Structures are given as structure tokens and as C-alpha cells.
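Job type: complex structure
Entries:
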Amino acid sequence: MPAAVVNPTRMELTRLKGKLRTAQRGHKLLKDKRDELMKQFLDVVREVRTLRSQVERDLMRVHSSFTVASALMSGPAMEQALMYPKQSVELSMTFQNVMSVNVPVYHFQTRTADNGDIYPYGFAATSGELDAAVGALGEVFQNMLKLAEIEKTAQLMAEEIEKTRRRVNALEYVVIPNTQDSIRYITMKLDENDRATTTRLMKVKDMILKEAIEQRQAENARVLEQN
Amino acid sequence: MADNYRIAAIGDKDSVLGFKALGLSVFPVESLDEARHTLHRIAKENYAVVYLTEQLAVQMEADIARYKDALTPAVILIPGKEGSLGLGMSNIKKAVERAVGADIL
């Protein structure tokens, strides 16, 4: 049964056939897109997982060294030491197109190029543990930025895959079968109309013939009677 | 295209103070409401990456979900000083489930 009421006309049939062709081609293309996205997505996810566990581990180490540092220094002194950063990070962002998904690519520049020159305080008033903590954090930070980039990529790709998957399914299980049903319905209806016309013509022909024969017979009878 | 963006870190003071030395914008927050407020405020500004501690994130999932599909900011969870809650990992899992329909990793 067709889902919606369709006009059983040739014009509608042509339209539906075109629609079916488009739907089938779209389905094939979207399916390819989904498969490729999925492949890349899984690669990204694997990368995220390893990087994240590494970053989390490193950060915990940094936290513990900060804790040690704050135990050795007074709170205000530590705050004061960190208050005016020497380092500043400038982040620029460009986009990369992965299968029609725009994913961010971060490029960052630090103001002081040397990684060993990031300590915003004099060494006299602070404890050595703080240096270690800040230094370690600077190292983790590279990975943290990379993590931000690929984790965002994974999120955006997940969204796109979900959308594509829905579209593929809608085409595969709704649009294409419905159109096929409609086409079948129209072809059947048109064939039925054809047959109806043929039989009607045959019937009409029979009737005309019968009439003609009867007329001829009556005429013959009249002629015979006259003779 | 290549505008300059900034990076933010939100969390309790002890967890995020260190990021200040690296030149990040640090927003120490005391309460959950403050964290929510800060997140929404800086999302409108020129921040590309926001690092948020898991201790806060666990209670503001709805707020984070709002930025999941947006290009900026990328809200990235980091463990606070109390340790990791495994939230960042489970978020990856959720993304996989969302994309594939099942957890396949």
C-alpha cells in the first residue's frame, strides 16, 4: 500500500521514478559518507583515549607537586608568585574539512619561546617545588592542547555521524520503499485502466457488429418478402 | 579566519592556579552556580578552549552539552586536584555510543 494517496497518472509515475532514482543515489552516497566518517572517527577516538589517559596521569602528577609546593609556601605567597604570568598563549584556529565536518585545528604561539623561561617569579622567594610543578605543567600543556583539538573533533564527528546515520536509515527504510510502493501502485492502476479500456472497446465493437448484423438480416428479410 | 582566541580554565582555585603561569585565563570559582555562570559568559567571548575540572563538570552536564555541537568553545574536562572521576573517559564512550549506536570499543 502506498503511504500517501497518489494520483495514478503517467505524470506522477515519471515524477516518482525520478524521485526514486535520486533517493537511491543519495542513499548510496550517504552510506559511503557514513562509512568513511565512521572509520576516521574510530581512529580519532582511539587517539583521544590514549592521549587523555596520558594527560590525566600527567596532570595528577602536576597537581600533587602543586600540593607539595603549597604546603611549603604560604597561600598568599604562592598566589603572588603566579599572579603576573610571564608567559602568554595566543591561539589561532583554522578549520579542516573532514568529510564535510569542519573540525578545528589549533595553532598556538607562546610569547616566550623558551620552555625553560616560563617562571613568572624570582627564585629567591619561592620554593623549588613550585618550579618543578610549573615546569611539569608546561610540558603537559602541549598535550592538553592536542587533546582539546582531537576531543572536539571527535564530538563534532559524532554529531555528524549521527545525522548521516539517521538520513541513511530514513532513505533506506522509509523513502525508498514508499516510493517503490507508490510506483507499483500506479503501474498496476495504469495497467488495469488499459485492460478496462481494451475490454470496453471489445464490448463496444461486439455491440456495433451485432447491430449491423441485425440490420443486415432485417434488410435481407424485407428483400426476400418483396420478391 | 585565523583570529586570535584565548584559553580558559575553570575550577576550584587550587586546581587551576597553576595554569595562570602558562598564560591561560584562569577563573577560580567557589560554587557551582558561579561555575555555570562563568562558563556561559566566557562561551560568548573569544575563547576557543575551556578546561573545566571534572569535579564541577559532574554537576553541570546540561550546561556542557550546550557547547558540544558548537565549534567554539571546546569544553575539555581535566581532573581536579582531588583526582580523576573518569568523566572524561566516559564522555568519549558516550560520543562513540552516539555515533555508532553501541559501545564498540
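Summary: Chain A touches chain B through 63 residues (CB under 8 Å). Chain A is about 75% helix and 10% strand.
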